[in-house]
Amino acid sequence: MSAKSKRSPRGSNSNLTEADEAEMDRIVGRPDSARSRKSAWDEDGGMDNMGFDRPSSARSYREEEEVGRIETTDDLFPTDTSMDEKKKAEEAAPPSGCCGKFLGGIRSMWATRQLQFEESTKNQELYIKTTLRELIVYILFLVILMVLTFGMTSSNMYYYTKVMSELFLDNSFNSNGQTFRSISNLGDYWQFARGPLMDGLYWETWYNNRNVSQDELGFIFYENKLLGVPRIRQLKVKNGSCKVESNFGHVIDDCYGPYASGDEDKSTFGKANGTAWSYQTSEQLDGSGHYGILTRYEGGGYVQKLSTTKAKSLAIVDDLKQNLWLTRGTRAVFTDFTVYNANINLFCVIRLLVEYPATGGALSSWSFRTIKLIRYVSVGDYFVMACECIFILFIIYYIIEEVLEIKKHKVEYFKHFWNVVDILVLVISSVCIAFSIYRTIAVDTMLEKLLENPEEFPDFEFLSFWQMQFNSAVAVAVFFAWVKVFKYISFNKTMTQLSSTLSRCAGDLAGFLVMFCIMFFAFAQLGVLVFGAVIRDFSNFWNAVFTLFRIILGDFDFNSLQDFDKFLGPLYFFCYVFFVFLILLNMFLAIINDTYADVKSDIALQKNDFEMTDYFKKGYQKMMDKLNFKRDKIVDIQKALASADMDNDMVVDFDEWRTELKKRGYADTEIEALFAKYDVDGDRTLDESEQKQMAVELEGQKAKLDEEENEIEKDKEMAQAGRKMGVTVEEFSVLQRRVDRMEHSIGSIVSKIDAVLVKLEAMEKAKLKRRETMAKILDSITEADGLDDEEKRDQMERLVRDELDKWDQDIETNSTGASSGSDRSRTASSRPPSSGYVGDRVYQNRKDSSPV
User: Fold this and answer.
1) Where are the transmembrane segments (predicted)?
2) For 103-152, what is the HEC assignment?
3) What is the pLDDT of residues 141-170, one digit of tens each?
């Protein structure tokens, strides 16, 4: 290809559109390669990248000529349709100028596959670009979300919780080694309150028995500040909250039923002075409900605040004990306090609960909520705050995107699973943002009140509860955010195996799930009714359900079943494991496994709608074309420099330079710019030094291009070397199945051909037999000339019978797969009387007593 075809005769700043250029190429007969090279030139910026200053208004004489030709092409197609299409294109085109570019940029920010569905289905490259852009933006969103979530937690939370729980739960309060975990009656609580509770809350001496200073008071483990004072709260039920059976009415006078908000005792009792003896509502205490082991408890009750010193707190506890603050009607005792560790900037909101059921005894439970309420202290915290601001911008961006998609697709939008996931993530994220703002304001307010009155009880229970819900909501959002990654990588057939398998077997799984649930819940109900009174794991229906799930996972207590009943326990366990685990559960796995095999076979046989590798290969080829074009351009200039000095005076004047570059298709402005760059003295000639400088720079640019191309080729070779060679196991399995089917088909064809050959061979043998029989009959007729008619008939009959017997024996020998009787009848039926056999005709003549 000549240099002229490589270069566009136009300058780099032409006003022609791509459609005009294509039409111009068709009229002037320019090859496609030249146009592609020209496109690469224009995208690269033409000669501007070499440092040439070309005026934007400049146009070469070839440009003027070709533009003139383009302007006259409208006369070649004087149709109304072309005018209508142009008008529609002009109306659809975005407004020109700065406003148009701004609107186009805004529109491209929310250009998703769903918003560009029609265009992306027709344009494969647009679909790939849109998918990649969405994936990159979403990965940035996911990174920001990860920074936020891990910025809220740290390993110190676990150790902080562990230290505080061991302090209050594992220290014994009597010689029997009882701890808070093993409290069993009303008296045990008072021993715990006077012992481990007081010792854990108030650290007033060092390990050498020296008293701590005034500033060091109120620190647990000398590190954790006790905020305000602890508080004890109890809930009671009134006498008569249950009914005594009439037969025991004269023996039992009092009846205290299980806790219920309607049966709560709100009357004043005991000393009748102070909050410990007078009921306060949940609104007065600004409290919240709590779920214990037995039931849910309201936020009101009888409350007693402790003091900031151990001595005063002990006096308060002793006073409550002496005046029987805990009674038969007591159903729950809460011990609440909050500590703060400034070293790690963490709060620990502690609640110790003892429940007294109507059966008697006691059940202890606890809650240690280690949370980070003061968010912005260190440099890392402020970095997290910056990420939170970016996260809010991302949420606004995605909300606008979903609104646009809903506006476009209407109800159809909600029929797609990934759209529902998008809505779920956005809703959870929006709620978390709102709560984060509320939490920051609420914590500042509470700490401000606490500093004003340090002997008040700071109720962080409500805030800590919702902080834990906030953490759980963020965890759910992160989970679905990671699941959503499948939405953006499902363009490849390998990535769709999971979703295709689940969607294809969903119907079978749903139908079988009904049978599984019937059997599963039947065993759960059976376990509750049989073992519920003795075994805790079957004490109620939900415990039984989770126990059966644990059995499926291999976590079970067989000894408790066997100890309850030597026969029913093992029988129940065996039946459940056999029917549910060995049969039903494996049926689930069989359905999924069978569907997965079908999906893999189908995916292996089908071709991708598009391959991402093809897109990158195309980009690689485009980059190589640009580098090759630049190299060709430099080579052209080098050749022009070598041959421009026509008079061999070692000086290249402008006319010689212009003539040489004109031959190679360069425009006047390009020639002028290139010449002016190296004509340092401005004498319109290039002397030997200036020519040498040009040659050195051109050679340097060429070497740089070669280096770039070598690096690209090296990266490509490394990628290909790292790629797995050969066929995969799935592809080999598919090929093996296809070969097996082909062998089976070929074997069937071969067997049929063998059967045809056997029949042809039998027919050939029959022909030979007929010839032999005919010859024998003719010979016998010739030999019987001297005999009378009776002897001739007997001899002929004997001969014919012998031949028929031999014929039948041969048929039986050659037959395959049939019985001898059926072969004989089939042989007889295959020889009708008029078949033309010589023996048949002779035998028929003998029966008719006609001479041969």
Assistant:
1) 135-160, 382-400, 420-441, 470-489, 509-535, 571-592
2) HHHHHHHCCCCCCCHHHHHHCHHHHHHHHHHHHHHHHHHHHHHHHHHHHH
3) 999 999 988 888 888 999 999 999 999 999
